[in-house]
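re: that chain from earlier
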Amino acid sequence: MVSSSDRLSGFLGKPLSIINVGLASFADSLRQQNLHVVDVDWHPPPAGVSRLTHTQAGISIDDANTETLRRIMAGRPLIVGLGIARDVIPGMTDNTILHAGPPVEWTRMCGPTRGAVMGALVYEGLADTPDQAAQMAASGEIVFDPCHHHHAVGPMAGVVSPSMPVWIIENAAFGNRAYCTLNEGLGKVLRYGAYGAEVYERLRWMADSLYPTLSDAVAHGDPVDLRGLIAQALHMGDECHNRNRAGTSLLLRALGPSMARTCDDRERLARVIAFIDGNDHFFLNLSMPAAKAMLEPAEGIPGSTIVTVMARNGTDFGIRLSGDPDRWFVAPAGLVDGLYLPGFTAEDANPDIGDSTITETAGFGGFAMAAAPAIASFIGGTAQDAINTTREMYEICFAEHEHFTIPALEFRGTPVGMDVRLIMETGILPKLNTGIAHKQPGIGMVGAGVLRAPAACFADAFEAVKAW
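^ sequence. v structure.
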């Protein structure tokens, strides 16, 4: 018979794998002792959260959410064209500037949003210098409005000005359209709040060369099925938010023949191909409006507690629900835990910013990180962290996607349909990955990382649901 002391001795002689639940500082101390630790970010759910099954009007919430998810997953976003913002985006005028996130006035705009606005006004020729642009922005001459109020989305600062070229995405299943600018790349770019000669030069080349090349190619060929490209990219190591290498390659493969047939200028064609090939984030500005196009038909379903908009402007973090699509629930934007470019630290970082969380809202992006283990090298963490994130997000989502699947999880559908009820019942907040902009205007990107969405906006939304 083996004694208890012998059993204990045998146990202690083996390598330990430890699961740490709750305080991250416990895991840090264990890692310092060279022990393998799986850190589970968990905290108790809020006290007194009751399960809601019906609204006060008697609507079955589960039935409403089922219809919401049916519409989201039925969506089939296609690239049907490109156009100039003032000509194609509903409600866009010559003195309108769109921005990411919930509504915010100039006086409350963060540094990168201000920087992008200032740069856009100089690019448009409405101001000669950033200082003049700032004065114009503060004067009341410019109308600021969220991209989301115009069927559009924008990464980071999300600024769209009247003469910028935009993608036109149509949901073939429902007929609605969504819009997004063309992606500039990383670093010192307008979307990260940078401005200056190199930023304007790139934007003008994009308008004069990139835009007509892509527009002619799209007009010549069949519409490109973005749902299909996203599904393929997830199988090739992307999560289609902060990793878009496969998506960008698939897009270039889809449009390449038509670009070659419609562009007579060989040097322009070569530069366009090189630009897209050298910008692994180019597909982001297609995955985002694809998500927007899939989500909009699911808005306005009475009794639905599914989040259909989640966005940040660098000052505020906001969500909107399917059952109450015109109301923003807002909380302060959080700080990102990330990796920084050389010369920058957390002291330089602006709070969370951008409309790109539309990807998580639609069932990919950070919620599909298990499909993209290489994302860890860009945002920090490990491949196991990416898998753990996706598994955790299933706990707060109403369904699993029919079209977006993850090979590493035996082709399980991605988590889709954030349910405010589940977020409140579990205490689990959406986990997001994102870029980091410098807090001062004019500088641009400083890093990338992860964070949790703020609890307050979901708590406020849950209180509103209880009154329906």
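The longest strand covers residues 397-406.
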